Amino acid sequence: MNSPSNTPPGWESLAPHWPNSWSSRFVDAAGLRWHVQVAGSGPTILLLHGTGAASFSWGELLPLLASRFTVVAPDLPGHGFTPAPDRDLLTLPGMARACGALLTSLDLSPVLAAGHSAGAAIIIRMALDNDPAPPQLVGLNPALLPPPALYRELIAPFMHRLATTRLVSAPAAALARRDGVIASLLRATQTSVTPGNRWLYEQMLGSEQRVHDVLTMMAGWSLTDLVADMPRLTVPLHLVAGTRDPWIALDDLRSLARRTPGCTLDTLPGGHLLHEEQPAAIARLLTESVERLSP
Q1: Structural domains in the chain, sorted by start
Q2: Measured between alpha carbons, how far is 94 from 5 in angstroms, rounded to an integer?
Q3: What confidence tens digit (pLDDT) does each residue in 266-275 have?
Q4: How many angstroms from the chain centroid is the CA of residue 160?
């Protein structure tokens, strides 16, 4: 890990509570100062978290994989300890390009990329736009379905104005800091998370800057082009959905999987934060996926 003088404000106080902080480093790439965790040795697996989370979300999964693989788990732009000064870096194509630049800076080429929720959309965009693409993609409770037209045409532009003028960021962060708010949000995922991770979610969503970045990301996030491009995927895509996940419409996800070449879909018991609830099962699934690619 870099010296304290090179770390962003707040890291030193949270590092003792951040899972696997021994693997943390700070890397410059794509005009960003990234917080990224790199652990283990062997073939590389890339892990991308979802909206509002950070690398701590992989806390229990990362060491399970690091016993056999090199695991790369960054904080996405605008999340955790990777600030995003440029709003373009909070768009889907912008995040995909930035993650590709980070891998180039680290001189690592994943044999498998796995993403949770919005992270699944990013790895698919990376595979569509980058050459070469990771040989295999895994989407965990993937957020791939565009919102209704009413949201895209009316609500999203309004949210963008609120986010960029910070009219909502401060009150939202203050609300998140109140007792029980984050717990209620996590209950809505139908997932049981550790007390340590619950506390870290409170720290992330209690920050005005992070809430501002998350709202800006959500306001500019467009899945319509991604879904239209998915038939061009040239690498296998395996989707995994939690049977209790209230945020992902399973029937719609099945329909999308049928329309995407080389796409398979399985379910596991669990909620939206499936990788936090069942890290051992997800570790086995990712390991088996890599083994299928090997002679």
Answers
A1: 4-147+222-293 (3.40.50.1820)
A2: 28
A3: 999 999 999 9
A4: 21
